[in-house]
Amino acid sequence: MRGARGRWLRGVGHLLLPPACAGCGGALATDEGRVCAGCGTRLRSLPYPRCARCSTPRGTGVPAGRECPDCGEWPSELVGAASAVVLAPPADTLVHGLKYGGWPELAPVLARRMERELPGLLERVGPDPLLVPVPTTRERERHRGYNQAGLLAEALQRRTALELARPLERRNGGGTQVSLHRSERARNVAEAFAPVEGAGAVVRGRSILLVDDVLTTGATSAAAAGVLLGAGAARVGVLTFARALPGSAEP
Ligand SMILES: [Zn+2]
Ligand SMILES: [Zn+2]
């Protein structure tokens, strides 16, 4: 159920039904947060050892210093990426609920987990970065009623008092990314972002923290970062709720 009607029906449902956990559907003692304690403890941080720059688990036995296959081709000013959890149950269900299920109230819950990654990321990006949500297309935002990355960035702004801006727009959807090979995805997103009018004045000389729900190959982040750097940003970091690792199911 999508759009305003779906949200209205869901709102009525909230009044009629006892609150359910967005992760497992189980009953919640209170409506607070929409995620039960059990699902909260099943959310997993990214395992170590990780790449010092992009935080992707490297596995043991990878020689230190060898270029990371996940971030080796990023622009050098894209200084780091961090994610709160692995995209595995129940994180995939939560991401799906936020993105497609019309559950915007999940954003503050997910942002609370993301905030834990901030200190390490700010060491690389610098203090006082500008929060920038990765935009979706206008069409999708209209259909969904919101941009999930925007909700996460707003929730982070409320928790941290960092400044938030929307200097990017997404020019095309490029269809679903799910079935595409990594190199096809990279081509698909390379042209996807553009600076909005006046973006230069907002981002020039600033450190930027790009905010999104999931980081998959990093191609989307690298493309968005490239546009921000082109508009004059000094450096860019990426913070997502979940990280898709090889074998993760995509929501
Ligand atoms: Zn649950
Ligand atoms: Zn890396």
Q: Could you please describe the fold and organization of this structure?
A:
The chain is α/β, with parallel strands linked by helices and 251 residues long. It has one domain (45-61, 71-243): Rossmann fold (3-Layer(aba) Sandwich), CATH 3.40.50. The chain has helices at residues 3-16, 37-42, 91-99, 107-115, 118-125, 138-144, 148-160, 182-190, 199-203, 219-230, and strands at 78-86, 130-133, 168-170, 193-195, 207-215, 235-243. The strands form two sheets. The protein has a four-stranded parallel beta sheet. Strands 3-4 form a two-stranded antiparallel ribbon. Strand 5, helix 10 (219-230) and strand 6 (235-243) form a beta-alpha-beta unit. Helix 4 (107-115) crosses helix 7 (148-160) and helix 8 packs parallel to helix 10 (219-230). The longest helix has 14 residues, at 3-16. The model has no long low-confidence stretch (mean pLDDT 87). The structure holds zinc ion (ZN) (2 copies). One zinc ion binds at residues 51, 53-54, 56, 68, 70-71.
